[in-house]
Amino acid sequence: MKRQLHGIHWMSTLLLTVVWVTLMGEVTLGNVVAGLLVGLFVQLVFPLPSVTVGLRFRPIAFLILTVRFLWDMTAASVQVAWLAVRPGPTVGGVVVDLRLRSDNDLFQTMTAEMVALVPGTVVIDLDSERRILTLHLLDVTTRQQAEVIRHRVLAQEARVLRALDPDPESVLNPRRRREVTD
């Protein structure tokens, strides 16, 4: 039986207590009690609304997402490091827009953040209403190179959706989208 007292969440209280004790630097009975009181006070004075995220965590897909993301970061770091130290002319970049498939703000933001963390790509803008992600790409001079990056970003979005979206195939395969009825 879950019991909740006027916006007090026990997990939040526990987390706030741990933060308090960590900030105090010493685990004592007084610090734990003070942390509990501070946690309760914060939740009573600053209540948060309930948030329904609508995620479905798939561990294998999440592992694939994580491993591929770490691989992309490592490979891009080596490429950018080489561009910085190699002899020859400086490299340029290009700005591209690409349309994401998901209309969910959370998944769009996660995709944009993961793309931004990979060296050589900078997220300039995310228009979530139109699902447009604007990127600056380093060392891209041809349309084919930009297309390769576009496919990588869309593959990253697909991995995010497969790891966390309740129904990723309805987003990734438009022919399987569910009909919305009133």
From TrEMBL:
Where are its TM segments located?
Answer: 7-23, 29-48
The membrane topology term of the UniProt record is: Multi-pass membrane protein
User: Which keywords does UniProt give here?
Assistant: Cell membrane, Membrane, Transmembrane, Transmembrane helix
Superkingdom: Bacteria
What InterPro entries does the record tag this protein with? Cation_antiport_E (IPR002758)
Give an example GO molecular function.
monoatomic cation transmembrane transporter activity
Matching entries from Pfam families are given as:
MNHE
Task: Kindly list the GO CC terms recorded for this protein.
Answer: plasma membrane
Tell me the compartments it is located in.
Answer: Cell membrane
Alphabetized PANTHER family for the sequence: NA(+)/H(+) ANTIPORTER SUBUNIT E1 (PTHR34584), NA(+)_H(+) ANTIPORTER SUBUNIT E1 (PTHR34584:SF1)
Q: Which family is it part of?
A: Belongs to the CPA3 antiporters (TC 2.A.63) subunit E family.
Cited NCBIfam families: PRK08965.1-5
The protein's name: Na+/H+ antiporter subunit E
Q: Which organism is it from?
A: Ornithinimicrobium ciconiae
